# Entry
Amino acid sequence: MIESTDGGVTWHKAGPGTLGGGVSVYPFFIDMGNAAATRTTWLAIGQNGSSPGRTTNSGVNWSTPSGLSRLEHPHGNARIFQRGSNMWVGGAYDFQGTIMRSADYGVTWSKVTSDERPEAVVWGTEKNVYSMYAWACSRWAEGLWRYVEP
# Structure
């Protein structure tokens, strides 16, 4: 990953660390409640042999969040949903049909539900969290799933 801290005028490698494995990676900022911490705190989801990584120092060091080892995105897309310190992510392959939830800004994760189809895209509202399988946008409606907060 490379980053620009001056609006895209110049670019540099974002930390010397790497996630390892995979053929594609989707990085996401984790909203930590303040701009300085959010800028350096990321969750990245890979594919094909990678595990997700979380960094709090712009990619200098990466760790695999507890509970997410081997979670991968399906071909073509990934998306997380965050509401405060709560986060949700879907997975494919080893995590087929699984929605994972974190209550601590992505440090630890636990399974919310499981289905026979993979999940990739997670979004929500104040009361509902939705997920669907969206392999490169094909047959998207077949996998629509809803989780309602208790």
Q: What stands out?
A: The chain has one helix and twelve strands. The chain has a mean pLDDT of 82. The helical segments are 35-40. Residues 17 and 81 are 25 Å apart (CA to CA).
